[in-house]
ROK family protein
Amino acid sequence: MTATATLLPIDQATFPLFAGIDVGGTNIKIGLVDDAGHPVAFEKIHTHQQQGAEKAAQRSAEKLTEMVAGLGIEPDQVARAGLATPGPMDLAAGKVLQPGNLPGWHFSPVRDLFSQATGLPVTFANDANAAAFGEFWSGAGAEVRNMVLVTLGTGVGGGIIIDGRLLVGAHGAGGEIGHIVIDCRDDATLNSLNLRGTLEGYCGAYGVLARARKALEVQGVRSSLSDLTDDALTPLEIAKAAEAGDHLAMSIILETAKLLAIGMASIIHTVDPESVVIGGAMTFGGDGHPLGERFLEEIRLQTTERIFESLRGEIHMDFARLGGDAGFIGAAGLAREEHLG
Amino acid sequence: MTATATLLPIDQATFPLFAGIDVGGTNIKIGLVDDAGHPVAFEKIHTHQQQGAEKAAQRSAEKLTEMVAGLGIEPDQVARAGLATPGPMDLAAGKVLQPGNLPGWHFSPVRDLFSQATGLPVTFANDANAAAFGEFWSGAGAEVRNMVLVTLGTGVGGGIIIDGRLLVGAHGAGGEIGHIVIDCRDDATLNSLNLRGTLEGYCGAYGVLARARKALEVQGVRSSLSDLTDDALTPLEIAKAAEAGDHLAMSIILETAKLLAIGMASIIHTVDPESVVIGGAMTFGGDGHPLGERFLEEIRLQTTERIFESLRGEIHMDFARLGGDAGFIGAAGLAREEHLG
């Protein structure tokens, strides 16, 4: 999930450029992306979130100015900026609300702050939605018009593209895929927002670990994971154990795939995409790794069983391609959409 | 669910008009709808499905010609027709596939047949999607831009409107709400398509009856429904028993509301509508009836518990308003969308 994009030489870029700014709790990723979706410059600065949003906007603007100068282009060749932050947010008002990893930014009018600092009009988006748009614009969804991105990590998030447009929703809650419900039981697992039976509650990192712990409690079960303390049990340790042949670890990973597929079936029967793209930090090795490929294959298999016969084989399911670059590229892409009107 | 629309006098209509044709297994509903969504004429003819689609197209066209003459208008004041049929269908090819209630129509090129018979360009749509568009255009969703219709009957169906446009999906399977999964258990109920744990499997008529039968089997349970034979147990009998104070019958209805709410939470976190509209034949009396209102109130309550705090109170949940007219009105509305381009 590191930045992997190759930068396009500026003399091959299509103008205008768009700035993409992807704010996380630790870093802010800043890129310049050309009109065809190719990054031409990329930098990462510390968020220093406790200093607040205004300072971060100023430092981001300074970095952007340096990047423009470094490319030897004029500032007015950058048409607009896209700003992605974690939710919750008030999109219409251009404000973040109370994102858990940005306490110093709570209720900041980030759209205006970044616009004033950069001198650019700013398009504001949810970071998971921006990542979805990035994959759609120049990643795993570049060949389709209808795509769903599902990101697996501490949380489960994502975004939905319908007929080439991001599904923002009436209240900015479109594509909140982690909060679809897969377990109707009254005693189903609660997630971090106290919502019961959600996809995130089972397939987010804490959900995976909770299922692993429960499986380890079964009397007589043999697993190398039994030797780990509660703190040492992580998705990465589960992946390592599975790769070393531990049956319980593998069964937890395959169960994760099955539970995810149950959520996928609901999304597919709701928005009917051409392509479902799986990203995030918890893909068990991801693309090109045997365990990641086995995980993806199980998602495909289990999803296929749960959807209309006429859809089987019709929906691509693949790993994301842009890794941690998806957010800033997508933010730039959403800025471009608004620029084009 | 009968036709309830008041017809607008033709001298108050806004032109052009659009024809809406809603094909069911028993009847074909044919209406003329003005440019503002008001029906100005309506007729119902028998489908006689065993005679095939071509004959039905001819009889529909004859009826339309009569209706136009009866209104005293010129044929060219009708700009386009919308044709809604049950799925599954190949929308792009303009064909029905194998709808269960139209065996005589299997694989018929209905779009072309109706176009040739009526002399009008034809917009082809799934009947549940057409009904959703009808409610959006001139029913319970007329004040919003983002709406979900859920229809409860033998099956559970619906349609989704995003930013004023019908979500058709990449393969015509958008808004197949009955097939979202609410129960991840390996032994969850199978529905008629052999899909496990779906909303339809629990909240479609057969699902409701299966839950009632199971509840009646519990030893010592007292219910007036116990006296009914298996054949005599229907959603209507459950409603009657609940109205007469039968606790088990009421608990089945409230459980239906809860399971439906679980599906609603998934849809809301996926497409984030302004309004969710509940229609279909199985609304336990529906709008204005005490039991229907209790059912709706329980859906609201249970949905609210399962969605983001920021969305609570922000999403309208109401009964559909157009009853059985939604399909032909929506088909006409979709024809109008295509006419406007």
Chain B has a mean pLDDT of 96. Residues 247-271 of chain B form the longest helix (25 residues). Chain B has two domains: 10-136+324-340, 141-319. DSSP finds nine helices and twelve strands in chain B.
